[in-house]
Amino acid sequence: MNTENRGSFKERVGKKQWMAIVVVLMVGLGAGALILRSAPVKPEAAGHSEEAGHGDGEHHEEGKAHAKKEAKEEAKDHDHSHGEAKGHADNEHHEEGKQEAKKEPAGYEEEEEKIAFTDAQIKAADMTIESAGPARIKSSLQLPGEIKFNEDRTAHVVPRVAGVVDSVSANLGQEVKRGQVLAVISSPALSEQRSELQSAQRRLALARTTYEREKKLWEEKISPEQDYLQAQQLMQEAQIAVANANQKLLALGATPSSSALGRYELRAPFDGMVVEKHISLGESVGEAVNVFTISDLSTVWAEISVAANNLNLVRIGEPVSIRSSALGQTANGKVSYVGSLIGAQTRTATARVTLTNPQRVWRPGLFVNVELVASEVDAPVTVSAEAVQTVEDKPTVFLRVPGGFVPQHVQTGRSDGQRIEVTSGLKPGAAYAASGSFVVKSQQGKSSATHTH
User: Fold this and answer.
1) What is the pLDDT of residue 271?
2) Class of the 111-132+378-452 domain?
3) pLDDT mean over 100-114
4) Domain ranges of the chain
5) If we measure between CA atoms, which residue out of 105, 101, 117 comes closest to residue 398?
6) What's the rounded mean pLDDT across residues 56-62?
7) What are the tens digits of pLDDT across the range 24-46?
């Protein structure tokens, strides 16, 4: 074809027609490749292919290349399908494992969580092994209190007459006996009282003598009966005057007879200790001034502040335990008084416990904690208070297993400080680490740190 014919041919065939031709050729090549792939190659075909022209050979090579490409894509699809199946199988196996783990009973930990401990190590750590079991849990009520003087055995000594202090024989903090002289005061008022008594006694003596004489004369018919009766009346009046003077002195706490008319002796009303002293030698004191405070410290009061909602739990005769954190001392007593009034400011009532104090350990002013039993219940499963440790922010008990311990999370209930109720997570009779359980917790922390590292 010459140049003019080629130009006219290109003009007649458009661009869209060229694209259609290319598409038809590609479809034909693909169909031929599929036919070659599905049909077996026969010797005759091989011989025939050798005799085939150059165009047929090119079509055959293109079919083989296309077949190889499809074989690779099918292999990839097969591998992908196998991977998905394998992954699905692995996931199903993992889920089955998780379900089996969930089906394991509570109270048992996996072997990998065991904390290894030999019998020798347990003995060296001074650890005790106990069994979970029933116990009586006492719910206690803690109340604040303060030690105070037993006011029934506390006296404020006052002179009851004005005067000047001549001597002081008692000192602050001194133990005194009943009737012991504490101080001596010189009192003009007391001197007048004793003088009045002595005058009345002398008038009584004269009236008695006159009465005896008049009685004798009347009996002998010498004197009239009127004189006898008059003498009798005077004697009786003198007796009344003497008795009156004696009562005045006794009311002042003074002895009727004394070497000095104005001597007034202050004496201890009972055995006790001088806890306050407000008197000194040569001081002028009034008749109503508290110069000594004597208290018998063999018994003291523990005053308790009771809130209104706890008044029904505090009853007279209820046993209580008194504890002082400052002294490290404890004592037992009984509630002897419960107030019926509630303070307007504190909104609490006052209760009182009479506490024996033979060693003078409980000193007034000391703050104490008063514990009394609020209720008692029987708990089916309890452990020692020392056995419960906090692991992962949960109460945990370390169960004894062969070769060591395993941690077991539990739910706790009531406690009395000695035993703790376990509501779930532990069966009766289970062996656990009681005292020394903190050693197991420490060892668990070390093992976790080593495993993480």
Assistant:
1) 93
2) mainly beta
3) 49
4) 13-79, 111-132+378-452, 141-151+296-375, 158-294
5) 117
6) 41
7) 787 777 766 666 655 444 433 33
